[in-house]
Specification:
It holds the Pfam family SufE. This is SufE family protein. By secondary structure, the protein is mostly helical. The chain has ten helices and three strands; from the N terminus they run ααββαααααααβα. A three-stranded mixed beta sheet has the order 2-1-3. Strand 1 and strand 2 form a beta hairpin. Helix 1 runs antiparallel to helix 3 and helix 3 crosses helix 7.
Amino acid sequence: MDCFEERRQVLLQELAALSGEGALYGFLMRQGEQLPPFAEEWKTEACLLRGCQYRVWLRLELAGGLVRIDADSDSLISRGLMALWVRLFSGLRPGEVLAAETDFLHQGVLGGWLIPSRANALGNMASRIKLGVLRLKQEARKEAAVSGSPSSLPELSLEPVEQGPLRQMEMSGSSCHDDRKQEKEFQR
């Protein structure tokens, strides 16, 4: 299985090879076209990312101990930005997603060419994915404790989230994952 660092290096090489702003936007649109179809029933308020200029939907689940990310947007560029995170994080273990450094996209080609609102959206997307993965990991632990089966997920210190920027993100809204019960709680 490949890791986040390998994926990051491949993406950085692809971005560095782009010849200009037009090439970047073409690249992002092609990335967005490669996202799997996002089911219409997933386009709910619970899946909608707050703080994005365009509508962006995010759905997360754990499948076989790996993170699965589904995403969509009504903007081609936002869809492409989301596709970068799907490409980097989907199929990884939760701990690897949570530990991943995500500021590198701002420091390279994207940071120089994206307008501020898109750059902010890029960071918002990564934060929301990490928050959603943390929630999924916590839910998996709770389910394991209730069922009496040991969790295959390693322990995670929650202190940084309780005091850091992900806590602020959590206070401002909710990510969507494949848990209908949580969606109902969100609607209350």
